[in-house]
From TrEMBL:
<comment type="function">
    <text>Dihydrolipoamide succinyltransferase (E2) component of the 2-oxoglutarate dehydrogenase complex. The 2-oxoglutarate dehydrogenase complex catalyzes the overall conversion of 2-oxoglutarate to succinyl-CoA and CO(2). The 2-oxoglutarate dehydrogenase complex is mainly active in the mitochondrion. A fraction of the 2-oxoglutarate dehydrogenase complex also localizes in the nucleus and is required for lysine succinylation of histones: associates with KAT2A on chromatin and provides succinyl-CoA to histone succinyltransferase KAT2A.</text>
</comment>
<feature type="region of interest" description="Disordered">
    <location>
        <begin position="210"/>
        <end position="277"/>
    </location>
</feature>
<dbReference type="InterPro" id="IPR000089">
    <property type="entry name" value="Biotin_lipoyl"/>
</dbReference>
<comment type="pathway">
    <text>Amino-acid degradation; L-lysine degradation via saccharopine pathway; glutaryl-CoA from L-lysine: step 6/6.</text>
</comment>
<dbReference type="InterPro" id="IPR003016">
    <property type="entry name" value="2-oxoA_DH_lipoyl-BS"/>
</dbReference>
<dbReference type="Pfam" id="PF00364">
    <property type="entry name" value="Biotin_lipoyl"/>
</dbReference>
<keyword id="KW-0809">Transit peptide</keyword>
<dbReference type="GO" id="GO:0005759">
    <property type="term" value="C:mitochondrial matrix"/>
</dbReference>
<keyword id="KW-0012">Acyltransferase</keyword>
<feature type="compositionally biased region" description="Low complexity">
    <location>
        <begin position="248"/>
        <end position="270"/>
    </location>
</feature>
<feature type="compositionally biased region" description="Pro residues">
    <location>
        <begin position="224"/>
        <end position="235"/>
    </location>
</feature>
<dbReference type="GO" id="GO:0004149">
    <property type="term" value="F:dihydrolipoyllysine-residue succinyltransferase activity"/>
</dbReference>
<feature type="signal peptide">
    <location>
        <begin position="1"/>
        <end position="21"/>
    </location>
</feature>
<dbReference type="GO" id="GO:0033512">
    <property type="term" value="P:L-lysine catabolic process to acetyl-CoA via saccharopine"/>
</dbReference>
<feature type="region of interest" description="Disordered">
    <location>
        <begin position="28"/>
        <end position="53"/>
    </location>
</feature>
<dbReference type="InterPro" id="IPR006255">
    <property type="entry name" value="SucB"/>
</dbReference>
<dbReference type="GO" id="GO:0006099">
    <property type="term" value="P:tricarboxylic acid cycle"/>
</dbReference>
Length: 506
């Protein structure tokens, strides 16, 4: 039976007994020599009374209260009530006696029952918690803190309080709960490791901080009436004409010199020659370090070719609407180059290999993980598309879309950029015509894409205007020879110009 239904029945029974019971009661003090309730003694020849003695009626009423107390106790235990309070002011007869020869006994102190009631636990407001630095990836040991909030600022749950810039990405640290920033434990730009305390947050203090704002608005509203006295300043314009009498230049020579010196301060504003020093963030420092390592380690050489984009543009024009309708993503040119690179890397495994300088060995890979360079306001990032050799155009476009969205929202994790056997850099989105990309170590090659421009080209002995793109392959000449590099680039050209080559595995 439901606890609430049981409680209802007990209350209803109590009401019935209270209505039907007579207005009698046992004396508050038992008679001398008695240890029980006082009773009505009837003569032996008198007929037994139908009405039970007042003690019995009181016992019956108190029995109802005892049942009610037990019901409340059951409900309390069912709802995990932690607070109990005992009320020991009532005495309940342990048994009912209707015979006049035996008295109704008072119970011992052990028969006192307990009332248990519900009590909600108070919410612990103004609790101060210390937020620590989240754990980094295995390849990252420390980072620099950049604060988004200051001491005394109110924050909501999951609102970003600071960002930790590492060598590869930025890690956002959100607030675990709504509250107010109590203390910043690390200075702006300070270095932290995993588990380092960052700041202290006082929970539940947002409402207390926001409450004064209405009070502040009231003084502002009260301060609003003063503006009407502003019309008197209208007399100041009338006073302005009285100022010209001060223009009497009694010293024309001294007046000319200050006017001649006045244009001098204006020179810095017109032709700015100021300098502004900005500290390099950790990501930019790491990029510079890796690029310099690539120049010092690799014997880089670049080869070029050009790609006719007519067929791939025609295919995109025909199928882009149907592709968007079915897959809810746009069909671009990057998927064609990524798939062409995977096809060429399987054909030329040396371009997909790497030199282990510690063991002096060449590591050949049976898989293709292509890093796609993406420019962000904080620097260049290269998220990785893994196992491209098993993907089609649709899978590649979806992967590029997901990684690009993460890069724009600054949500790329270190795991998204670890690894990679080959890199593609698309400078064409910025209008690049020609360029030589730098290898992303420890890889051995990188493909550079450029802008698509209409140029005159010879087609079957005739000059035609075609959309052309220059492509460049920079490779480590210690591992990749010129023949392999040129063959690789011609594979890229063949697949992009005619995607049917992939179906024929040519």
């Amino acid at each position: 039976m439901s606890p609430f239904l049981l409680l209802y029945l007990v209350v209803y029974m109590m009401w019935l007994f209270s209505v039907s019971a007579p207005r009698g009661r046992c004396p508050s003090t038992p008679p001398a020599g008695r240890s029980g309730c006082s009773q009505r003694v009837q003569p032996p020849d008198a007929a037994p009374s139908r009405q039970p003695p007042p003690c019995a009626m009181l016992s019956r009423s108190r029995t109802v209260y005892r049942t009610l107390g037990r019901s409340l106790s059951t409900l309390t235990q069912a709802n995990n009530v932690l607070v109990r309070q005992s009320v020991s002011g009532l005495s309940v007869c342990s048994r009912l006696v209707y015979r006049s020869s035996q008295p109704c006994e008072y119970p011992s102190s052990a028969n006192v029952f307990h009332f248990r009631y519900f009590k909600t636990s108070a919410v612990h407001r103004d609790e101060v918690v210390t937020v620590k630095t989240p754990a980094f990836a295995e390849s990252v040991t420390e980072g620099d803190v950049r604060w988004e909030k200051a001491v005394g600022d109110s924050v909501t749950e999951d609102e970003v309080v600071c960002e930790i810039e590492t060598d590869k990405t930025s890690v956002q640290v959100p607030a675990p709960a709504a509250g107010v920033i109590e203390e910043l434990l690390v200075p702006d730009g300070g270095k932290v490791e995993g588990g380092t305390p960052l700041f202290k947050l006082r929970k539940g203090a947002v409402a207390a901080k926001a409450a004064p704002s209405p009070a502040a608005e009231e003084p502002a509203a009260a301060a609003a009436p003063p503006p009407p006295p502003l019309p008197p300043p209208a007399s100041t314009p009338t006073a302005m004409p009285t100022v010209p009498p001060q223009t009497a230049p009694a010293k024309p020579v001294s007046a000319v010199k200050p006017t001649a010196a006045a244009p001098a301060p204006a020179l810095p504003t017109t032709g700015g020659r100021g300098e502004n020093r900005v500290k390099m963030n950790r990501m930019r420092l790491r990029i510079a370090q890796r690029l310099k390592e690539a120049q010092n380690t690799c014997a880089m050489l670049t080869t070029f070719n050009e790609v006719d984009m007519s067929n791939i543009q025609h295919m995109r024009t025909i199928h882009k609407d149907a592709f968007l309708k079915k897959h809810n993503i746009k069909l671009g040119f990057m998927s064609a180059f990524v798939k062409a690179a995977a096809h060429a890397l399987n054909d030329q495994p040396a371009v997909n290999a790497v030199i282990d300088d510690t063991t002096k060995e060449i590591i050949y890979r049976d898989y293709v993980d292509i890093s796609v360079a993406v420019a962000t306001p904080k620097g260049l990032v290269v998220p990785v598309i893994r196992n491209v050799e098993n993907m089609n155009f649709t899978d590649i476009e979806k992967a590029i879309n997901v990684l690009g969205e993460k890069a724009r929202k600054n949500e790329l994790a270190v795991e998204d950029m670890d690894g990679g056997t080959f890199t593609i850099s698309n400078g064409g989105v910025f209008g690049s015509l020609f360029g030589t990309p730098i290898i992303n170590p420890p890889q051995s090659a990188i493909l550079g894409m450029h802008g698509i421009f209409d140029r005159p080209v010879a087609i079957n002995g005739k000059v035609e205007i075609r959309p052309m793109m220059y492509v460049a392959l920079t490779y480590d000449h210690r591992l990749v020879d010129g023949r392999e590099a040129v063959t690789f680039l011609r594979k890229i050209k063949a697949v992009v110009e005619d995607p049917r080559v992939l179906l024929l595995d040519m």
